[in-house]
Description:
The protein has one domain (about 10-95). The protein contains 4 helices and 4 strands; from the N terminus they run H-E-E-E-E-H-H-H. The protein has helices at about 10-20, 40-55, 60-65, 75-95, and strands at about 20, 25-30, 35, 40. The strands form 2 sheets. The chain has a two-stranded antiparallel sheet. Helix 2 packs across helix 4. The chain is flat and about 50 Å long.
Amino acid sequence: xxxxxxxxxxxxxxxxxxxxxxxxxxxxxxxxxxxxxxxxxxxxxxxxxxxxxxxxxxxxxxxxxxxxxxxxxxxxxxxxxxxxxxxxxxxxxxxx
Length: 96
């Protein structure tokens, strides 16, 4: 078993590679205890941002409304926005 001590940069790189949670927080309860709210995964947050952008642009949305076979437009776009989120995380990982 390795007893290697990791520096902060190494630890941060590992967390980034795993997809850091977006908006983690500690919530103080009335009895003085705290609750660790991990937040949503960064991948989900990015996909949500892409989805909102797609819905806000009528022309872009209509582009996705075309014939996609048996796949409903929302399902098709949901798959695409996760592909975009994955590409962003991959690019981010390449820079670290």
